[in-house]
Design goal:
315 residues; alpha+beta
C-alpha cells in the first residue's frame, strides 16, 4: 500500500512538473533555473579547458562516446572531454524504461554497445586512434588524461569539483533534471542521414537543455566543445558563424580581446538549419525528428538491479 502511495505521489509530481514547464515564460524560467542547479552543484566543472594542452597529443580521428544525459558517470566523462578540449561523436543511449537496468529492445545505439563491449553499461568510449573500447567512467577519465592530457593541468574549479566528498555533486546534479524528457528516457524519432553538430560547453545550463533533447531523441551528433580557453573551436565558430553573433557580442569580444561564441549552437546538415537559443533548438529537434511519445514513467521506477557492484559508487 505504501509503495502504491509513493508511486502515485511520484506520478503526480511528474504531471505537475510537466504542467509547470509547459507554462509560457514561467516554464522556461523554471527549466533554466533547474539546469543552472546542475552547474552550481558541480562548482563550474567543465567550464574551462586545462592549461598546457598545447603540449599534449591530439587525436586525429574523433572519439566516440555512447552515453546519455542524466547519468552521473556519463557527466563525469563529458566534463573531461570539455576540460581536455576533445571533440567526440556522441551516440545517445537513454534508457527505454526505468524499470529494468540494461534493457535494450528498440534503442538505437544500445545494441551496438552490447555487440562491441558485451554489456549494456554506460558510458562506453571508443577511441579509433588506439583501437580502445572501454567502460567505467573513472577508467575512461584516467585514459583520456594519460593519452591526451599528460602535460596539462585542470582549472581550480575542476580540481574542487572532484575532491573527495564534493564529487558527490555528480549525483546531486541529476536531482535537478529527473524528468524522462531530460535525456533519461528515449523518445521515438526519425534517424538523420547525417550527424548533427553541437557547439557546447558541459557546464552551460542552456547547452545542457539542448543536449538533453538530442539525448532523449537518440540523435547522433558531433560534440564541439567550446569551454573558456577552447580557442580551436571558438576560432572555427567565428570563421563559420560570425553572422549569427549580435553586434553587441562582437563589440564585447573586441573589448575583452577574446573570441566570442554563442552556445549552444546547432548545425543540422540534413536540413541546412543553423541556430542558437536552447528553447528554439529543442522545439526544432522535436518538430523535425520526434515521431512518438516518451515513456510515461517516473524516477521512482528507477532500478540498477543487474548492474556491476561498483556502479553507484562516486569514487
Amino acid at each position: 500500500m505504501f509503495q502504491f502511495i509513493i508511486k502515485a505521489f511520484a506520478s503526480s509530481v511528474l504531471a505537475v512538473s510537466n504542467a509547470m514547464l509547459s507554462l509560457p515564460y514561467v516554464g522556461r524560467f523554471i527549466d533554466v533555473l533547474l539546469a543552472l542547479g546542475c552547474s552550481t552543484v558541480r562548482i563550474g566543472a567543465g567550464g574551462f579547458v586545462a592549461s598546457g594542452l598545447e603540449s599534449c597529443k591530439r587525436p586525429k580521428k574523433l572519439l566516440q562516446l555512447y552515453e546519455y544525459e542524466g547519468c552521473p558517470f556519463c557527466r563525469r566523462v563529458r566534463e573531461t572531454l570539455t576540460i581536455l578540449d576533445l571533440d567526440a561523436e556522441i551516440f545517445p543511449t537513454p534508457r527505454e524504461t526505468f524499470k529494468e537496468y540494461g534493457y535494450a529492445n528498440e534503442s538505437r545505439f544500445r545494441p551496438a554497445v552490447l555487440k562491441h563491449g558485451g554489456k549494456c553499461q554506460f558510458p562506453f568510449l571508443v577511441d579509433p586512434n588506439n583501437n580502445i573500447k572501454m567502460y567505467e567512467s573513472l577508467e575512461i577519465v584516467k585514459y583520456l588524461w594519460d593519452t591526451y592530457g599528460d602535460k596539462a593541468s585542470p582549472s581550480l574549479f575542476d580540481r574542487l569539483a572532484n575532491l573527495p566528498g564534493l564529487s558527490a555533486g555528480l549525483f546531486l546534479a541529476g536531482a535537478f533534471r529527473m524528468l524522462p524528457h531530460h535525456g533519461l528516457l528515449r523518445t521515438p524519432s526519425a534517424y538523420p542521414a547525417k550527424k548533427l553538430e553541437l557547439y557546447s560547453a558541459e557546464n552551460s545550463p542552456f547547452c545542457r537543455i539542448a543536449r538533453e533533447a538530442l539525448s532523449t531523441l537518440e540523435l547522433p551528433y558531433v560534440l564541439k566543445n567550446c569551454a573558456h580557453g577552447a580557442n580551436r573551436n571558438r576560432v572555427e565558430f567565428q570563421s563559420k558563424f560570425s553572422s549569427h553573433l549580435s553586434n553587441s557580442r562582437k563589440s564585447i569580444g573586441k573589448l575583452l580581446g577574446k573570441t566570442i561564441v554563442k552556445i549552444p549552437f546547432l548545425v543540422d546538415p540534413n536540413t541546412g538549419v543553423m541556430m542558437s537559443e536552447s528553447a528554439d533548438i529543442v522545439k526544432y529537434l522535436n518538430d523535425t525528428y520526434k515521431t512518438g511519445r516518451t515513456v510515461n514513467e517516473t524516477f521512482m521506477n528507477y532500478t540498477t538491479k543487474g548492474a556491476t557492484e561498483g556502479h553507484m559508487k562516486v569514487l
